[in-house]
Amino acid sequence: MNKNLHKLLNKKTRTVIGLLSGTSVDAIDAVLLKITGNGVKTKIRILDFSTLIIPHKVRMEIFKNSDKTTAKIEDICRLNVIIGALFADAVLKLLKKHRLSAAEVDLIGSHGQTVHHLPVPHEYAGYKVKSTLQIGDPAIIANLTGITTVGDFRIADCAFGGDGAPLVPYLDFILFTHKTKNRALLNIGGISNITILKKNGSKGNVIAFDTGPGNMIIDGMMYHLFRKEYDKGGKIAQKGAVDAMLFNSLIYEPLYRQEPPKSTGREHYGREFQKKLLKLSKGMKKQDIIRTITEFTAYSIWYNYSNFIYPKTKISELIVSGGGAENPVLMKSLRGYFKGVKVFKVNQFGVNSRNKEAVLFAVLANECISGNPANMNSVTGSTRDAILGKICLSCHSLEGGNPF
User: Fold this and answer.
1) With helix as H, strand as E and coil as C, how does the chain read?
2) Does the domain at residues 175-351 carry the CATH identifier 3.30.420.40?
3) Which end of the chain is more exposed for a tag (fewer CB within 10 A), N or C?
4) pTM of the predicted model as reported, rounded to 2 decimal places
């Protein structure tokens, strides 16, 4: 056995870096934390959080190669290496800031960058499969940082017929289950996903699924209409009004109305969806378009709660994370729909709306090294437990930078 890996397996407390680039593809989030124990006994202490902006050209290439009408296999191959190198840069930035050597960090957990997600079973070449693809290979990260890296977490769940998503319910369960309160954890990234934690509940009765769009269509339309990456502080939406005709057209969009389990991504709410939305809203005031799709995003979340959760579990708290938690218009709309429920941004154990998903992948890496299955059958639809992630080792460090 590798000497460093053997040492790592026997540590009770590990220094870990979690990495994430989500469906918005605006930046790489990196969190530095200490993790003690594993499973339901996991304790975390967050040391720092930083972001590395993804270069605009790379971001546009990711969007292009996440769309089946414009993707090219040679470009995806190249992006797999480039994104891995960018993730390594995010790690090296944290190391430099804290004057840490690679030897002082035990582990990296990296989500990578999703370019396609196909959770619906599909007949292909004589097989019926669910599949997902994340690029930014963990072997690149491990070798450019000199730190053992765990990545590619989703595909093991697909091996047992699962969707490979969502994964955040595992973190929700081990950190946020309450003894006396039914809670929902809502993450609004590019896609919105919700986790239902029954009071004093067990892993087997966690309910979680993607509700539909999060920031993805807001960000997409902000770029098309204003050439801005996102609606910072909800300022554009604040200037607009909900257009009844556009809103009523959007609420008949079928995917968010499907019964769970379900998951989705850019392949549904990306370029093609946004092209149709531009045609549908032609002639409208730009700020009204942004306000309307912000309202629709909140409505789609509430629709899923009221139709698929409320009949069985009534929650008292809705705890929100992700970039959407920083949009006051979206948060106000949520409070309007979730009457009688306390709606607030996550702030517990050092976990907040910005760092939560990066923390997830640090914890999942720790679970992989500990040999614990971290998929949730009741969430993804998988038939068996699976240890998530691939372990990539390195025999050297390139702390001075990478060759890209």
Assistant:
1) CCHHHHHHHCCCEEEEEEEECCCCCCEEEEEEEEEECCHHHCEEEEEEEEEEECCHHHHHHHHHCCCCCCCCHHHHHHHHHHHHHHHHHHHHHHHHHHCCCHHHCCEEEECCEEEEEEEEEEEECCEEEEEEEEECCHHHHHHHHCCCEEECCCHHHHHCCCCCCCCHHHHHHHHHCCCCCCEEEEEECCEEEEEEECCCCCHHHCEEEEEEECCHHHHHHHHHHHCCCCCHHHHHHHHCCCCHHHHHHHCCCCHHHCCCCCCCCHHHHCHHHHHHHHHHCCCCCHHHHHHHHHHHHHHHHHHHHHHHHCCCCCCCEEEEECHHHHCHHHHHHHHHHCCCCEEEECEECCEECCCHHHHHHHHHHHHHHHCCCCCCHHHHCCCCCCCCCEEECCCCCCCCCCCC
2) yes
3) N
4) 0.86
